[in-house]
Amino acid sequence: MAKLTDQFNPQFATLETGPKPPQLAPAPPFMLKHHPERWGVEHGRVLPVFAKLHLQAGISRVEQIGGKFVMGEAIAQTERRGWKVIPMDVQGEGTSYLRKPEGTNTHLMQWEIAYPGSRQRGLDVEGWIKFVDLLIKKGAIERPALYVLERMLANKRKAYGAAADQAVTMPSAKSRADSIAADIKVIEAEVNKAKKKTKPTKSKPITLGDLKK
Fold this sequence. Notes:
With 213 residues, this protein is an alpha+beta fold. It is built from 5 helices and 11 strands, in the order ββββββαβββββαααα. α3 (146-169) runs antiparallel to α4.
């Protein structure tokens, strides 16, 4: 066979293989915010239900100047609506409760776990609860008020009644009823604690003379 004079041998590079980055949808950075009436039962505790104040210029009065976020108006508007915005460095100077997994454009809380090559997320429950306890200790959020807990308890008892009735004819519903019953015990314990700490509001009788003043 004649030797080819115009053969082409492409050059191949060998890339180092490593874990694939998490396959998470892009998500902008954010600040946590909490409303005093937003609480739920998770992981055997009554925990705050947070929402997010997204750091995106032009949304919710967030501004960006010279690459830096200006949050004064956004935070003021949020707090006028009864929310409390959690400072990014609430854990100490130079800290942040956000992280951005390598290879993604997704911003998560420190305690959210991302898995290589997966859309799945997990949670470091112990770390998350420690963070919540820190927020309460520092006064960044207040413990749930007694009326909030009592409303939660009433709603859970109603849900338990419906689930227990359903379990009579549908045995598979029993696990849901059991789960709600466990939540009720958690809330009842918090109600008892709150009752011990709640001081009655002082007042005095109002007379007709007072009303005329």
